[in-house]
Amino acid sequence: KTRVKKLEFKERDPIGYEKMFSKLRGGIVHARETAKRIAASPIVEQEGELCFTLYNAVGDSVLTSTGIIIHVGTMGSAIKYMVENNWEDNPGINDKDIFTNNDCAIGNVHPCDIMTLVPIFHDEKLIGWVGGVTHVIDTGSVTPGSMSTGQVQRFGDGYMITCRKTGANDESFKDWLHESQRSVRTPKYWILDERTRIAGCHMIRDLVMEVIKEDGIDSYMRFIDEVIEEGRRGLISRIKSMTIPGKYRKVAFVDVPYAHKDIGVCSEFAKLDTIMHSPVEITINKDATWKLDFDGASRWGWHSFNCNQVSFTSGIWVMMTQTLIPTSRIN
């Protein structure tokens, strides 16, 4: 789909545009604050390790809540994976379906970040998605806890879910409920986190339906196209106003003390002390285009600190937005 060239809705009816933005954004934040009360996990309920995001039909972010917004990119990547791999035909994408993912090679940062994805339909046509993610307490990995570090291959990461259809007609499949709870050490926290994500997604889906009923499907579809383009323009404007063109360089080092006697490692060949080097060069041009160069960074290693592409790009997105755009107009 070609990029929107002109913000027609915003220019024609700026008040209507802002009202729709405020209602959707406020509703998404409200859904997060309400849904997290379902969770019993202190990671979610007290620390607020969850996030909800509204997407268009192909996984581009429209609006997001507060919270762990690095997952704006990861959930979008999971949606794009389903679209690109023809999930529409098999297993099928239907109204009131529920999908679950935590596959870091597709769209995730850590295996403990479990995401629920719910499609939004209008007149039997897919018009968008809602995604919700929570940081769960345990994934059944080689060591207890959400952030296991003893494994040196992804096969030790625990329960792995690849954009799996886990529910239909707004109800989770029984085999999924039994299997998932039997695969982790903290089943009660797991299932309450699941209910948190589903509840929030359904609240946002209902909100979208309410907006469409009030303002019409054409206005809504035009709005989501324009707000994505407005976000792109806003980032360019902030780069121009907040940065100085040129090259910025930084280095960072991270130690991996796997030879230490107190570090439990599954594979003996991984018991090595190493240092990861992470240099970066940022080139900012006068037209607000920019380039990142990580030439010289360490290769992957036999440890738990490797990174897939989507984790990397999502981390860059968070850095850019939280540094340059201290407002709700990010996507």
Automatic annotation (TrEMBL):
<dbReference type="InterPro" id="IPR003692">
    <property type="entry name" value="Hydantoinase_B"/>
</dbReference>
<feature type="domain" description="Hydantoinase B/oxoprolinase">
    <location>
        <begin position="13"/>
        <end position="326"/>
    </location>
</feature>
<protein>
    <submittedName>
        <fullName>Acetone carboxylase subunit alpha</fullName>
    </submittedName>
</protein>
<dbReference type="GO" id="GO:0003824">
    <property type="term" value="F:catalytic activity"/>
</dbReference>
<dbReference type="Pfam" id="PF02538">
    <property type="entry name" value="Hydantoinase_B"/>
</dbReference>
